Amino acid sequence: MGRKKLHPSAKCKQHNASLNKKIPHQTKRISPSKRNEINVQCEKLFHLSSNPAYETQLWENYVQISSILEKVKRLEEMKIESSKRCEAIGNFVKWLRENGANIDGVSIAEFPGYDFGLKAERNFTEGHMILDIPRKLIFCTQTAAPELSILQNDPLVQHMPHVALAIALLIERHKENSQWKHYLDVLPNQYSTVLYMSTNDMIELKGSPTLEGALKQCRNIARQYSYFNRFFQSNQNSVSELLREVFTYEEYCWAVSTVMTRQNRIPNEDGSKMIYGLIPMWDMCNHEEGKITTDFNRISDKCECFAMRNFKAGEQIFIAYGARTNSDFFVHSGFVSIDNKQDGFKLRLGISKADALQKERVELLAKLALPSNDEFLLKPGMEPISDDLLAFLRVFSMRKPELEHWLQSDKVLDLKHVDCALETVIEENVRRFMLTRLKLLIANYPTTLEEDLEIMNSSLSHHKKLALQLRITEKQILHGALDYVEQWIKA
Which ranges carry the SET domain (predicted)? Predict the structure, then answer.
């Protein structure tokens, strides 16, 4: 009834007046000679991060990009002068209350292993409303940074809403007298996303399918940074004037990471589409597996958060971020959920164009509503192989007579069932393929699961520990799937 469920993800007004610059936020200006060198490095960076020829050499490309970014960061030499987050909480809470937020019964507190989170000041029963945040307090391009309309024709701002939101954050962070100051002051100064990882940290993902996604994410953000550096240095408009002297790689990483770790989709003002926004206070909640209990109430025009389970006074209040794999959490949110029942190991499979039976296989997969090239998830638990994955493997293993039979059959969906009657040789081929593939995937890692569990007891940096936790969860899925297939073969 007037509500839309929110899954934590994650109207520009005309504004032609000049913006007031806020240079004191940075320690000093960049000298002209250093600025020229930064621009030169950014041109190299843009080429390295844009050239499709590097798509097949992601690691080498990443190392080159990282080397240039280290030079850029040394040249920029601009550290943010930020007060401690804990000192900003009082003004932040006051700002929320003054603008109509209902946050009675909750407070912001530090929790071991979580940094900040929400604490219950009284008992909450499951389904009870914890807080509601009105639209005017939700940071989005309809409520914040109206100056962004100047860039409305820019392709990145126009077609990439998360990029637009990141630039909006930087505009509000650097202009004087921002109405969002109290929210910005309580945000983290840095994050645990892959953008903050060094090459030494990233090498810990060797053998993991997550490495590719992490490298592409870093590559994309490097390209965006170099693009906007060029834009702000070469264009004459109020946004460029505001950000020209303060736009750095570290600033952009902060803005992008803020969006990646906190964005959510809400309906726009007229309800015609979903837009991305940051929801103050609610975005302080940490993740716990459970059901989605946050709605956007179109009638009251507020984000409403309800307790997903009972919470006692003094406990940390959690919300569920949705059904995501640890790979997604790691790359986009900077954490790993150890007991993630929604986790999965991404297994990329495809029908080769050189396959003599490619046409028939692709046609049969289409009847099953399956793509000919895609990622399938191996799941944790008792049944790691999904119906879709099983059907794909069967089609992949069929000979011409079986393909012709099932293309004519009106019971093609039976291929998704474990007990489907198939030629023994087909089922044997499926099992042998999975057995070989799983052993190869496990062997791709430079360490064993047992070694990783042992390393976990040693002293590690935060990012190395995250990468290790991810490797362990991936290997546990692979070993579980291998045990399943071996028992399948014996049976």
Answer: 104-322
